[in-house]
Amino acid sequence: MRILCLYxxxxxxxxxxxxxxxxxxxxGHEFHLLCANFDARARHEPDGAVSVHRLPTLAGxxxxxxxxxxxxxxxxxxxxxSAAQAVRRVRPDLVMARDLHVALIAWAxxxxxxxxxxxxxxxxxxxxxxxxxxxxxxxPQNLLFRSAWASWLIELAAVHAADxxxxxxxxxxxxxxxxxxxxxxxxxxxxxxxxxxxxVDGGAAAAIGQRLGEGLKxxxxxxxxxxxxxxxxxxxxxxxxxxxxRARLIIVGKGKAVAEERVARLIDQLGIGGSVVRPGWVPRxxxxxxxxxxxxxxxxxxxxxxxxxxxxxxxFDYMSVGLPxxxxxxxxxxxxxxxxxxxxxxxxxxxRALAEAMLRLCDADLRRDLGERGRxxxxxxxxxELEGARFVRCLERVAAG
Length: 401
Description:
The chain is α/β, with parallel strands linked by helices. The protein has helices at about 15-25, 65-70, 75-90, 105-115, 125-135, 140-145, 150-160, 170-180, 200-210, 230-245, 255-270, 285-290, 315-320, 330-340, 350-360, 365-380, 385-400; strands at about 1-5, 30-35, 45, 50-55, 95, 115-120, 165, 185-190, 215-220, 250, 275-280, 295-300, 325-330, 345. It folds into two domains: about 1-190 and about 385-400, 3-Layer(aba) Sandwich (Rossmann fold); about 200-380, Glycogen Phosphorylase B (Rossmann fold).
């Protein structure tokens, strides 16, 4: 098959897209990606298993204008024309939308080509946009292009127009079934790592661990943003430190300036600066070493309809290196931790509950047991070898139909 995928952001990189493309290429299929071009890169280039086609830019034009040309909104004619051109160039057997922002453009392109359209719906976009607007500073982008109501209407149209919808957790499947989407037109493909993805350099991990010092080392890996619950974890740290003075919270990742400032301000207010380590953004090739150098993987999600219908990669990344997980009990995470025994779930929004769960893992034997359960679950069930094969079979079935 030749698959044309529309993606409303820049590439590289998107870890899910890379895995989808690699699985399709391994099965003998071509994967062509039409994506935004906010940073004025080459229009066409190969990138591993992906043939990248980017939106046009205007040479010498202001950066703001080229940014506007790539903006993934359904009223943007640049996207519509570029999708039509990509269809003529690629002659796909199937068109796919990687996100909701370009779903109806992908549907129109697929219908014009007379081929099926698949929507990969990894996020609960109507509620996610609302969360972004709640926790970020007011901006023209939030005002004009992040309407939760418009997103709700687009999602409703897209999930019924698509020939098939791919989601990341069973809870999202339930949500769409309540909207009238037949279960036969949906497939769950979870965001999980490949079995061998967590390549840990023992020497590098040991050196990081030595730098971090003795005591319980708790790592948060991912985006720094208000709606992801990191502030609750920070508020839990004084309770942890009171019982375990050498404990450290290691925050690996970055976020927008407003979120970074809020985190820094809260650390100062709580007086925990000596117990929080912030290495910032770490290359993916080194992230597994940081995780392996720590004792606990933290995922302090807020209670939200966003986190009740999706799941973060970090849960499975922690499990893949044998880290026990402490997470708040949003629905998919609570289900997976209960099923695998890979960690402890705490009540969302409660610093005390989160602190109590972290302190339970001062017990090295319990950490070792939960960590091994997580690693075993990755080997047996939650790995990309299984999920990628399911995705390929799904697309082949849709294209054949």
